[in-house]
Structures are given as C-alpha cells and as structure tokens.
Specification:
By secondary structure, the chain is an alpha/beta fold. The protein contains nine helices and ten strands.
C-alpha cells in the first residue's frame, strides 16, 4: 500500500442550489486502502461522494486521482480516470435480467473483472442471472449494483450505504466481498451508518459533521476513540 494519496480531496465546497452543504472537506485515501466516512444523517457524507464523483457539479476545491485533478472534468472522464460510484438507491434496471444489467455499463479501462469472476464473487447473482431486476431482493440488488461496476475496470469504488436495510447474512456477504476486493488492490471510500460493519472492513475512518471533517484516525485507534464516536454519531 503506497503512502502517497491515491485519491486526494482538498478544500471541497459544494452546493445544492443556494444551500451550501460542504465546507472545505479534506480527505486522503492511499492506493488499496478502504476508508469509511462516518457521520449522522445530513452530515454531508453522500454529498461528498456525489461531489467527488462529479454528479454534483456546483463545487469548488481540488479532487485529484493519481495526481490528476478531476474537478473540471466531465463525468465520463472521471469514470475513465478510474472512479466508480454505487449509489444508495442502486439504480438497477427493473426490466433487464441480472446478466443484462451486468453487461450494460461500458468498460472504461482494462483490468475489469470478467462475468465469470463476478459470478464467483457473487454466487447469488449466478443463480439469479436470468431473473429480472423486479424479482430481486434488496440484497441481490445491492450485490448487482456493486458487481456491474467491477466489470468496467475502475480502480476506486465510492460506496454509499451498501448495507442499508439488508439482512445480516447479506451484510456479511458484502463485507466478505469488500475484503476480497481489497486483496485485489481496489481502493474504496465507504459511507456507512452500520458502525459494526464499517469497523470490520475499514483501514481508516473520517468523522463528518455539518459538512466538515471533524476527525480522522486509523482502525487500530477505534476503541480509544469511542467517546468521540459516541459524541458525533450517538453510537
């Protein structure tokens, strides 16, 4: 794992219309690292992911991936640079089968997983490959939302609440997948309300409150920081 920032965000400001939501967000993620962004609802976590990806365009600051500033780049250039986004709402095409959903996003770079590799990582999807999106459970939809990004060749995943509303067995499976992706060298920025899940998969944590970063620490300091977490998160 390199010590230099792979994804670097500096002074990120963002707005929804006239509403100023992010106030100078800074964060660093090293290559191959899994970082969790924690905070209460409304703290600005999802906005941070959307602003980094370029879906939210009213923003200022610097967003660099492998040293390349992406702030002024159009969304398709951001994807080709290696960023992939899995939104909380998943965005599964209901009328398409699992297999068709998997093949829909275009490849943006070499090195993406093959369909067979994806099915090995998500056996449930192989079993359901001819099922339409409307027939999938919430957990299967979440697996599919992650899986179809892995085919595209992106190197960095932005995941928004991947375990929200899912059964414990599915949460465990998604955790196993994130651990496997880390072994494969994937860089991951994770927004997660499930603190117990986040602590199992993340190398480092950022704490967010009112559109600002209010703390950061490595995973091994987690227990010593519980007082700070309880104050910010109410856990």
């Amino acid at each position: 794992m390199s010590e230099a920032p792979y994804l670097e965000v500096r002074g990120l400001q963002a707005w929804y219309g006239e509403s100023h939501v992010l106030h100078g967000v800074d964060l660093d993620i090293r290559e191959g690292e899994t970082v969790a962004l924690l905070g209460r609802n409304g703290a600005g976590k999802t906005t941070t992911l959307r602003a980094v990806m370029g879906i939210l365009r009213k923003r200022e600051g610097a967003i660099r991936l492998k040293g390349q500033d992406l702030l002024r780049k159009p969304l398709h250039h951001v994807a080709r640079a290696g960023l992939g986004y899995v939104p909380e709402e998943r965005g599964i095409f209901a009328s398409l089968t699992v297999a068709e959903n998997l093949l829909l996003p275009p490849k943006v770079a070499e090195g993406g997983m093959s369909v067979d590799e994806i099915y090995a990582l998500f056996p449930n999807l192989h079993e359901r490959r001819t099922s339409q999106g409307t027939k999938l459970s919430g957990g299967e939809q979440q697996m599919l939302a992650i899986a179809r990004i892995l085919r595209t060749g992106v190197t960095t995943l932005l995941l928004d609440e991947p375990t929200e509303g899912l059964a414990p067995v599915i949460v465990q499976r998604i955790g196993d997948v994130l651990v496997e992706l880390k072994k494969r060298g994937m860089t991951i920025l994770l927004v997660e309300q499930n603190f117990r899940f986040a602590r199992k998969v993340a190398d480092r944590f950022y704490l967010m409150e009112d559109g600002r970063m209010v703390g950061s620490f490595p995973g091994h300091e987690l227990d010593a920081r519980m007082g700070e977490l309880q104050e910010v998160l109410g856990v």
